[in-house]
Input
Amino acid sequence: MKIFANEIKENDDVDSLFLVKDKVSGVTKNGNPYLKLKLGDRLGEIEGRIWNSVDLFIEAFQKEDFVSVKGKAVSYQDHLQLNIGYIKKVDEETLSLSDFFPVTEKDVDQMVRALIEISQEVKEPHLSQLLHLFWEDPSFLERFKIAPASKQLHHAYLGGLLEHTLSVAQLVLKNVDHYKGLNLDLLVVGAILHDLGKVYELSYHRAFDYSDEGRLLGHIILGIEMLEAKINQLADFPKDLSTLVKHLLLSHHGQYIWGSHKKPMILEAVILHHLDDMDAKVSGIQQFLRTKVPEGSRWSSYHPLLDQSFYVPSPKQEEEQSNIIEES
Amino acid sequence: MKIFANEIKENDDVDSLFLVKDKVSGVTKNGNPYLKLKLGDRLGEIEGRIWNSVDLFIEAFQKEDFVSVKGKAVSYQDHLQLNIGYIKKVDEETLSLSDFFPVTEKDVDQMVRALIEISQEVKEPHLSQLLHLFWEDPSFLERFKIAPASKQLHHAYLGGLLEHTLSVAQLVLKNVDHYKGLNLDLLVVGAILHDLGKVYELSYHRAFDYSDEGRLLGHIILGIEMLEAKINQLADFPKDLSTLVKHLLLSHHGQYIWGSHKKPMILEAVILHHLDDMDAKVSGIQQFLRTKVPEGSRWSSYHPLLDQSFYVPSPKQEEEQSNIIEES
Amino acid sequence: MKIFANEIKENDDVDSLFLVKDKVSGVTKNGNPYLKLKLGDRLGEIEGRIWNSVDLFIEAFQKEDFVSVKGKAVSYQDHLQLNIGYIKKVDEETLSLSDFFPVTEKDVDQMVRALIEISQEVKEPHLSQLLHLFWEDPSFLERFKIAPASKQLHHAYLGGLLEHTLSVAQLVLKNVDHYKGLNLDLLVVGAILHDLGKVYELSYHRAFDYSDEGRLLGHIILGIEMLEAKINQLADFPKDLSTLVKHLLLSHHGQYIWGSHKKPMILEAVILHHLDDMDAKVSGIQQFLRTKVPEGSRWSSYHPLLDQSFYVPSPKQEEEQSNIIEES
Amino acid sequence: MKIFANEIKENDDVDSLFLVKDKVSGVTKNGNPYLKLKLGDRLGEIEGRIWNSVDLFIEAFQKEDFVSVKGKAVSYQDHLQLNIGYIKKVDEETLSLSDFFPVTEKDVDQMVRALIEISQEVKEPHLSQLLHLFWEDPSFLERFKIAPASKQLHHAYLGGLLEHTLSVAQLVLKNVDHYKGLNLDLLVVGAILHDLGKVYELSYHRAFDYSDEGRLLGHIILGIEMLEAKINQLADFPKDLSTLVKHLLLSHHGQYIWGSHKKPMILEAVILHHLDDMDAKVSGIQQFLRTKVPEGSRWSSYHPLLDQSFYVPSPKQEEEQSNIIEES
Amino acid sequence: MKIFANEIKENDDVDSLFLVKDKVSGVTKNGNPYLKLKLGDRLGEIEGRIWNSVDLFIEAFQKEDFVSVKGKAVSYQDHLQLNIGYIKKVDEETLSLSDFFPVTEKDVDQMVRALIEISQEVKEPHLSQLLHLFWEDPSFLERFKIAPASKQLHHAYLGGLLEHTLSVAQLVLKNVDHYKGLNLDLLVVGAILHDLGKVYELSYHRAFDYSDEGRLLGHIILGIEMLEAKINQLADFPKDLSTLVKHLLLSHHGQYIWGSHKKPMILEAVILHHLDDMDAKVSGIQQFLRTKVPEGSRWSSYHPLLDQSFYVPSPKQEEEQSNIIEES
Amino acid sequence: MKIFANEIKENDDVDSLFLVKDKVSGVTKNGNPYLKLKLGDRLGEIEGRIWNSVDLFIEAFQKEDFVSVKGKAVSYQDHLQLNIGYIKKVDEETLSLSDFFPVTEKDVDQMVRALIEISQEVKEPHLSQLLHLFWEDPSFLERFKIAPASKQLHHAYLGGLLEHTLSVAQLVLKNVDHYKGLNLDLLVVGAILHDLGKVYELSYHRAFDYSDEGRLLGHIILGIEMLEAKINQLADFPKDLSTLVKHLLLSHHGQYIWGSHKKPMILEAVILHHLDDMDAKVSGIQQFLRTKVPEGSRWSSYHPLLDQSFYVPSPKQEEEQSNIIEES
Output
């Protein structure tokens, strides 16, 4: 059973799986080699030391490997440290990623089913087929189910991309009939595919970071390419239609300064941008507030990317006087 | 019956009401005084000339007055011109403003009723009373029913403010249950009151323009003052609650560069900003597209404030292949 | 008598008043509870520890309380630390705030008298009455006398708001006759009232920080409301005149990017903005230079908000060659 | 005697001096050559035509020459036009520049005397000598007396640079004793020399425009060079002192985006920037308001460089209720 | 033989080819239908009128068609106008596009050969094959030979894209050995392909404008897609290598505010950006100077996109004293 | 022989030269005075302590002096520390600056000769003489040979200014014949003189930092003054020509936001700006990559001034497949 890094106490005997977050070799004052590790999981980190049989272990695992570790927790200069007697690399397939990374609280398969159901709303046959190609592609689906939506800003957890995508698609359905003359098919396809490329932009099997491709090309270009590849599988996908779908992807960030490749030039793109932005902001702020409001305070700490703090009105007071909405 | 400026043809005898958009006195080559007018209504403008009895008419009306005019349309240097035999000022009360200004296509009283109904959703007693004070204030209501939402950008027609306010309130109801823990009362009150001050920021009885107060103080400050005046009528309105409502007004433009006085610091303000912005953008672009897409083109002319053009996908093609939404 | 934190030396027996800047409870290796405090005053901070009778003291005071402390200064790991034997909360009224916060070097009452005298220059009767209402409001005056003008940037000390307000009013008097046709009354009223709302924007009884209202609404809005409340007490204050006074408050930051709600649209507002900005900059830089020029250097350290350093020409050299001005 | 362009009426025989603002040669339908001129002076412009003896006159003058003209005013297609019978170039020295360009309303020699008097305040001997070198340089003085302070924005008239320089120097004297420890000598020298280079940046003998040097180098660099040339004439001008004076010139625009070469890094530069900016703004707005407030309106037309309009409170109302300042 | 619009004189009998730039139908005062045309070619425009047999001609051609026209030039209200007796549509293939649009002064086929020769420098086999695929694609080559490089800013003439591409490739060769360790292959491929998508971004057979695809997707995305299509034809093109080539395209505008999709992250991309930018600027300014320096002036008129004017030092003076470079 | 700070190990007896980077006096617990030093050289820093004869040494040297030091390396709290028995100041002339600061890897004299050779390309006699004046000025040359080109961003080592200047001049020669009609003389002079003022902007005998003059005036103004001084030595240097050379210096940063005093207004200035910017960027990034790419990574660490990271494609892979250029 997984023992989490933050649960370990002095003198514990530990036998558990960890992710190697750092691995440095050193030499003691006596001239003996040793290994200094940083071991982590979803809930914390702990220092590790290998003092013995270093030559045996030194090549057995690398930074960012998952390892099985046996050792004893000791206190050194006020810090807890794991003196490791045995360590070996373990295969990613044999463990549960959610022990190591934050993960969506929602049911992944249920979310996929909800998205596929929403796809039925699309009546234009080419667009409908396009969505089907994605749902029928198991290697896409596998990544799409666990990818986070961002490294840090919003939905930054396994399954976050799926959660965000479903949320935007639901928002589209809620709002599409509020204005006259909108093309529902385009909006639904845009909502479902808008962040497609994040499946490859981020690497998330070892740490949440950008992949080389993600940094050099960006998720929008990666998404365009994934889309083009699928469109090429469909016999007679209309050129105009593919241009519009691509435009939705290219313009969903809204403005150049926000990394948009194009300004939204059709009404559906204007709406997709607003709903996507609202969902990313609201979810990102909610995620931030969960950990960044000091106890006893109504003010969050400073949010560096948004350059401001947030205020949380006293819940008690509101409970009495207002009707707070439970999520639908 | 109203004859509109754009309906007048050469040699017509005209007897109708107009708004005096310009009034300049001149002297003919023969040394005789004359008056040069620009007469307008909702659909157009026509030049007017008074050659006779100028001293009789010169003080009888001013620029921006409504006038009853009798005259004959003649052609002079390729332009149509109305030679006026008789003119007199008429009272604003005796005419229909919608002959002179663009006006909402929706039913004003029905929109007011819809807003009042939405107000019932508010359960917190102080906020509920606050909304009632506005609905029970006939002088407010009279202005609120005809004010435009802006001079030019969106909902720039009589009744536009009401239409926009209702639209934002409806959007709030559609989206409020999508996220957990939102305060419905605050959101509804924010939606209904957010543009309150536009009732006084714009003058719209003679031309759509900003009032002196509107230019010197702005609609947000005017709204805060109207709000404060109503709150002062309520015995024990909680200080914290009034601060939050004011914050919703102050922050609804989202960012300083967009004229916001504060950044949204509570989740309800974040959401109000997004929905308000989406409604203003979508409605403004729809209004723009109605007149600014040249026949035969799929591209609108350049929108100077948004610094771009918009694309209108061929409706025919879409009709066949997609399911276009009719407004709910 | 107050012993200041920075005066305490090893082995001193300390008996003095402090502000509790932090209070954390911990457990020793032996499992005994203890309290870890940060105690501060105007001149410094010192760590405090309560090892005994923790249950007795733990509820007796909170963070940001003023306390009377008895204890002995000991050295632990190179740091000085106060082992506290007795501690109790004391009432704010019984102590001198200037022991705990930086405070203006000028005479507060004399500054108030100077401002009231300047108010006599205002001849327009409504404006004159308006100023009187403020001077006759003891609860306003009490706060106005101690409020700082900012948290950090300029006049960031008790009495700083009053000092800055007087300075701007004096600058107005010095410069008003340099240009033709200026309205002295408006300028004086604008100078005196421009930062009014800072009385409530900042909290300064325990620490210099923003109040909830200050963060959610800002000092300009708070000032507008205080102004409106006073104007409502005056029978027939002309609407146009109150609009102009409010415009002076709303526009005194000059440009949107500097947090101004309006650009200055009347000449008096243009001038008020320039003199206010000059006073804030000059005083802020002088305050900065007092502590941020390393000994032996002519260059200050980096000023992060102004994104630059400042140069202090060698005083000696100048003394000989120039006529340095003593403040008037 | 000068007859101004805007005073000419149909059928007038005109004999006066004008500036040739444009000169184009054409051919009539009958194949005869003619000259089409635009003639101007301080108050207006009039079209001119030379139909006869064109070969005689065509080389006799060029665009931007001053000419003596004899002709008759006729009306052609509703426009007044001067049929010229005789034209010859006249020497700039023989005429009064103020007939052709706007000119300061103040007494130029009196302003120079005032500036020289202010120079006496400077006690540091090198700085004092530096100012003297300028006052004793007749070719500098001649240009300094007539140069405008800008092409358009403020003090855009002959003598405007002198007027602005004096105004800033007076402002310095009014404000220097408000703050402690300022170096009066530096401030006075900075005020007097800050816009020095405008003497060469602008050409103003024919039209207000930038000189080649002015466009390629700018008035700040030209000023630095003029300053350096004078300093080189002084035996032992201290290096540190010349650096500070140059810094005042380089930094007086305050920020890079306003064309400042350096940010103000000494307190005197901070103050010089603020007072210079206030004077330019206030004078520029006053000059703008003189011609750009439509009769009957309280709002100026749009000021494109400042991107706003200005409000002029009803003077009548204020006269009754306020004490308007006459310029000192 | 082509008679150009700007060569037509009153009373000329005209028989030539034109592009229909505008076509409006009207009704004369007598109630007869007529057609009002704007006819253009590379050197000018002329108004056209069809007074007779309107029903015969009205459907025979449309706006943006090329037409063969017979008519007589008459003068009406000072403007030249072509009264057309006969008009018919002609096929684009039968005429010379360079009569209607500005065209490169260089030899197109020679430029293509030069580019292909430069392609030989590429040694890496996949990149070499990639370039070959483009050179062997006749439909690409046909468009690549005539496409302009921009609508207006630089190389805005037929063949301009080719000319600019060759120029950047030559600059790469000139500079690549100046720095150590650069990858010549990547740089050459980047230079040749960087503006690829402009082949479809602009439409240039009737007028220089953006295509729908060009506006909705942009030339960078279009280029990425063309590149991807070719790479897919190559069996084992390395993923890393294609990512780098795409990165060169995505980043060649250098910064987000200049429309770059990515910042240059490899040294080759940094260099490509600089050389591309230099070439676009220098060529654009040279093109601008050719027509925008008024005779007798050394200053160009204002360049709105670059927000400045340019100075042309007197060529005579330089000829004598300097060694001006003839293009290599 | 120099022992470098980073070579010292525990228990070493050290006898070497160092730069005093910091010097603070303290008192031990026993009340004895001691000195705490930071000693540095090109490769590292080490803490120093003087426990004995403090009064003897305390005035013998200052911070930023070079000193000869004898002492023993001991370990204290895990840090290495030099216990100094003897220390004395040494004269800068007696040591090799390159032991203390990073230094160009190229041959300084050879670079000077190359620049002088390039100067021969200049044919215009005044410009040619101007360059000669600089090359014949030994005090200039001495500084020019060792000055760095910047404090940190690019060529931040002794000789860096010379290296950068030569590089830009070579780039000018490589590219000047690519465009028609460029003035080679101006371009070469501009390249050689553009960063002239850096000779005085930076102080680099003790530490790389800005001089007082450098901070208050900037290298562009310093360069203009050095240029003006030389031009004044030449009898009849044409005014127009000196204006153009100065314009090249003033505009070489390209845009105001990048610290340019003028936008480039002649083609030669446009080109100089691009080549200078390319050289600074490429060299700066190469210098950055040398130390900031973690082993095993293809990504550099974050570059704060350029706000991005850089990617280094695997050299191995490229070696096989591409032709990497060796520097010419």
User: Anything to note?
Assistant: Residues 20 and 39 of chain B are 5 Å apart (CA to CA). DSSP finds twelve helices and seven strands in chain B. Residues 316-322 of chain B have pLDDT under 50 and may be disordered.
